[in-house]
Amino acid sequence: MHSPEQYSTWIEVDCTAIENNVRLLCRMTGVAVMAVVKANGYGHGAVPVVRAALQGGATWCGVARIEEAMELRSAGIDCPILILGFTPWEKVESAIANDISMAAWTADQVNFAAVKAQNLGRKARLHLKVDTGMSRLGLSPEDAVALARSMVHTPSISFEGVFTHFARADEKDQFTTQQQERCFREVLTSLSAGDMLPPWIHAANSAATISHPNTWFNMVRPGIAVYGLDPSPDCRLPSDFRSALAWKTVISQIKRLPAGRGVSYGHEYSTASEERIGTLPVGYADGYRRVAGNKVLVRGKQIPVVGRVCMDQIMVQLDSVPEAREGDEVVLIGSQGEESLTVDNLAAIWRTVNYEVICGLGARVPRVYR
Ligand SMILES: *Cc1c(COP(=O)(O)O)cnc(C)c1O
Question: Measured at the alpha carbon of residue 19, what is the angle toward residues 10 and 330, in degrees to the nearest 5?
Answer without folding.
Answer: 20
